[in-house]
User: Fold this.
Amino acid sequence: MSSTSCEQQTFFGSIHFLSRFLHTVAMIGTPFHIYSLYCILMRSKNSLKVMKWDLLTLHLVNISFHYFISALASPYVMLPAMAGSPFGIMKHFLIPCNVQIYMSTGCLALVVISSPVFYERWYYELFRKKSKTWGRVRKWWIAFHYFGVIGIVGFAASEAPDQAESIDLIFKHLPCLPDYFHTSPIFVLSDKFSTIVIAFTVLVLIVASEDIFFTMLTLLFTSEELHSGKLSTQTFQSQTRFLCKLHLQVLIPLPTLILPLTYAILSIIGDYYNQVFNNLFVISASFHGVVSSLVLIILHSEYRRPLFCFRRNILHVEEIQKDSSSSNAAVVFHRRHSIVVIN
Assistant:
């Protein structure tokens, strides 16, 4: 029997708490997502304009994962068992549990594999755009990555055990599960922990090595062009800063996925069940998309400037004249290049 206690059943471990929190996160994230998409499409200039469509693809992947976790699938997980019960919007459309879980798995895989494609694009634009050979190879390489998501989902489907038998074993192993699990459909992703962990570890190592590879290539060629005089110091610093921003854009939201995945592994290894921590596992993952949008807006001056300019204009609205015998007031708006007076 796992390390658990029936006393752990609290409001914070309930589906009601998880549901309210996830829906709140979805609503809070929506305006940030809309604004960030507007910025990518309408305010991308200079280096950002070159990366516009790749930036859009990466961000849409992050947003999709956010909505899958916070609204569409919304899994109520049962760690240390690799099982759960989705309770999101798709449940009301009678979409089967396994389809929802596989779609969520596919979104997570897309989040993981999108980063090397993103970094390769910047390297390609700087140094390999004129190379026909690289242009042909990269198309196959990118296609392999995105079609690989189908392979990952297929692998997950092949690992799914007999559901009736597995669910019965889970109920015997975890006798203090919330009542919701006894009245709702459950899907067991796998009963082979080691296989899933090894496969996921291999995927992460491959992606991380590709990220490092394209980063080092970009820095190496940039440094060579600087020393050969083909690149000015100012341009070198500008490109290096932009590359740093691209990495921060991926790295800063990463803890929202690393922390829950670390807990999941420790929970399974230690055979530890705590529904409060399970809810925090899902909540942390749901913040990935929100953090990604905020980081995107804050990092790039082209995107954050309108927000600060709007605030500055509001603060500089000054009433300069008010006639005691009239309700009309003269208001002046101080702008960077003009002054507009409204009587």
